Amino acid sequence: AEGVLREAQKMQAIGQLTGGIAHDFNNLLQVILGNLEFIRAKLDGDARLQTRIERASWAAQRGATLTGQLLAFARKQPLAPSAIDLAATMPDLIPLLRRTLGETIDVRYVETVGLWPAMADAAQLESAVLNLALNARDAMPGGGRLTIELGNKVLDDDYVRRHAETVPGDYAMVAVSDTGHGMTPDIVKRVFEPFFTTKPDGKGTGLGLAMVFGFVKQSGGHVKIYSEPGEGTTVKLYLPRAVGAAAATGQRSGSPLDLPR
Ligand code: ADP
């Protein structure tokens, strides 16, 4: 039974992974197709170049069809979004994180009063946070501090213009910060790529952040990474604020500011 379960988890992981990647990949293909079309219109009468453009177009179209199939496959791996009261569910995770990360890592938890409920799959959110915490641990071999911080965030038009890939609106934020070795900008650029890892000896799969990205994208959210070599890393997950009837069941009025360790 364990094998079957693991297989199911693996399928779900692949589904999420492909969901997030296919979504962005499709956007890139649309850019290629649009530009090919533009060039084709300018190529009056050069038959050989026309043929080349048509071949490139055909390949990009074929790519778009394949990513469409991947997205369809990804959607078969059901996410079960509901309104999550983060202030109620996140504290439960902290003891598990303390046990997993060991004594050399100081785990802190910070939340603000009146947190908005998040619309997401609760089990997937938990595994995303765990993934981030394990990366943080690996970045702090000599010990350090891990901070989980919850907050509300309005992503306005200006933010969206600068960072793209999301829509303006209200988001619940889950931030995971460490005081580890950090990353250079070159590495930050690549961390969402599936199978990208810098961990030696087969220690890494390179799937952790790709899965986190896939999950957040499929939830209609946004991921932002801040990292400074030698200083540490912060990964911020923005999940859409749950509204309406769904939110009413998940909402909780104020809560203490900072849960002691
Ligand atoms: P894996 O952990 O298996 O390598 P991930 O996709 O989770 O795969 O991470 C990819 C890479 O991103 C890591 O190998 C590491 O180089 C970098 N990385 C991720 N999280 C952190 C972090 N908190 N601090 C420093 N580097 C990180």
UniProtKB/TrEMBL annotation:
| Residue span, Histidine kinase domain | 20-243
Q: Which domain of life is it from?
A: Bacteria
Q: What is this protein called?
A: histidine kinase
Q: Which residues of the full protein are shown?
A: 339 to 599 of 744
